[in-house]
Amino acid sequence: MDSVSQPPLSRTPRHVIITGGAGFIGSNFVHHWCHQYPGDRVIVLDALTYAGNRANLVGLEGHANLRFVQGDICDRPLIDALLQEESVDTIVHFAAESHVDRSILGPGAFVQTNMVGTFTLLEAFRQHWNQAGQPDRYRFHHVSTDEVYGSLSPTDPAFTETTPYTPNSPYSASKAGSDHLVRAYHHTYGLPTLMTNCSNNYGAYHFPEKLIPLMCINILMGKPLPVYGDGQNVRDWLYVGDHCSAIDVVIHGGKVGETYNIGGNNEVKNIDLVYMLCDLMDELAPALPIHPARDLITFVKDRPGHDRRYAIDATKIKTELGWTPSVTVQEGLRRTVTWYLEHQDWWQPLLSQEYQEYYRKVYA
Ligand code: NAD
Ligand code: DAU
Q1: CA of 100 to the centre of ligand 2 (A)
Q2: pTM of the shown model
Q3: CA nearest to 63, candidates 83, 37, 96, 84
Q4: Which one, out of 64, 119, 323, 338, has a CA that is 20 to 30 A from the CA of 187?
Q5: Which domains does the chain have, with CATH numbers?
Q6: Is 147 one of the annotated active-site residues of the chain?
């Protein structure tokens, strides 16, 4: 995995629960953390929904300090037991329902996991922290999204940490609700929370419902590339390895109770991103039957309530903690396309009946 930060010189090992550690970003973070801090105890807590995958943790089976627990973040007795028996001092909370299109089809699971699940973790961690005498070193790190800030026009300034919340989808509304709970637990109870709101991630182990992996796999299978609306929506692309190093920096140096925005400095229109993916595939897989891959592009009905533009102002994390992204979108996409080309054994089993049904519902 890509790891860029250096471990602090003197450091007491942490006992960390990583929720959602079998999902896309969570698993990249588990690889990052186990590589950076092999002396830490790491407990991956993941319900293994359609988006969770044990294969994302391949290579870590022999890691002596890693424990995998299949379980739900809404299961309070389970959380209480893990916090106590593992003497947990840190929670890094990724677990969520994360896909906007699925939140439009069925918002209930988003409210349950993203809001009730986050509440359950906060309550359990608060009790655990109190019972331990409120130690200074405890941390609850909540991973959130730039989507809580709403949608920008082409000329609006990028989101800062003080941009008012204006969530537009059931997904972003449920993430906003969880962010407010985290903030309130610090303000009211003094719980040592940290929060990061980041832009669109991409890289290895990305489930093929999201734009980049879906386009990569459809090109490989010679299927149409469905671009929503006019393709002019803008996202700020953040390579997942950069996101992991940013969270690491915040956990070790962030000020308790604060929020840090994380972005990639890579604003790209969707259609231009799809062109880049097509051109990379043409270069890296010249034997594919449909050539050029751009011939597969199809404009389809827009996503309801589709946010036009997201952009992150990451000045705060840069000036206060010295973090900046290290991977350009050109380099990150090249690495990602190469990864999907070399890991057909990873993505092929994900194209299950459930996936096909989901695909028909969204793209029919
Ligand atoms: P993902 O959908 O790939 O993975 C989510 C993981 O959470 C899966 O492993 C799933 O099994 C697990 N999970 C779901 N419900 C659970 C529950 N009730 N209990 C325990 N585990 C459960 O998501 P991702 O893209 O890796 O996103 C991780 C986090 O980062 C989310 O909180 C998301 O909101 C946030 N985020 C993602 C992006 C992005 O571009 N992907 C950007 C900003 C923020
Ligand atoms: O901004 C951070 C968010 O990024 C995260 O909080 C979410 O968890 C993550 O899913 C992502 O949300 P988006 O909706 O921006 O990502 P998605 O990959 O679904 O879509 C990216 C853009 O591409 C968006 O403008 C919609 C468009 N799109 C997407 C798909 C799946 C298409 O045009 N066609 C598609 O088939």
Answers
A1: 7
A2: 0.97
A3: 37
A4: 323
A5: 15-203+238-264+309-327 (3.40.50.720)
A6: yes
